[in-house]
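Extended Data, panel c. Modelled sequence:
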Amino acid sequence: MRFLLVWILNAVALLIVAYLFPGVQVLDWKVAAVAALVLGLVNMLVKPVLVLLTLPITIVTLGLFLLVINALLFWAVASVVPGFHVTGFWAALLGAVLYSLVTWALSAILPDAK
C-alpha cells in the first residue's frame, strides 16, 4: 500500500515540477504516473551502478557529481517516456533538483511505515 502512495506522490511531484518549471513538460497525469514509475525503477536499478562506477570523480567533486548523475537519469527517462519532455541538460539538472525537493516535501506527509 505504501508503494502505491509513494508512486502517486512521485507522479504528483512530477506534475508540480512541470507546472513550476517550463523546461520540463508532462502531457497529462497518465504520463506523469508512467514517468514516475520509470524514474523510480531507474533510480533503484541503474543509479547505484553509476554511483559505484563514478565514485572517484564523485569523491574529487565532494559529491557534486551526484547532481550530474541525477540530471542525466532524469533526462534519460524523459527521452524514453513519450509525453515527458526535458529541454536540455540544464533543464534536467534543475528539474531533477526540483523533483527531489518536491518529492521530499510530499513524502513528509506520509505516515511512518511502522
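The radius of gyration is 14 Å. This feature is highlighted in the accompanying rendering.
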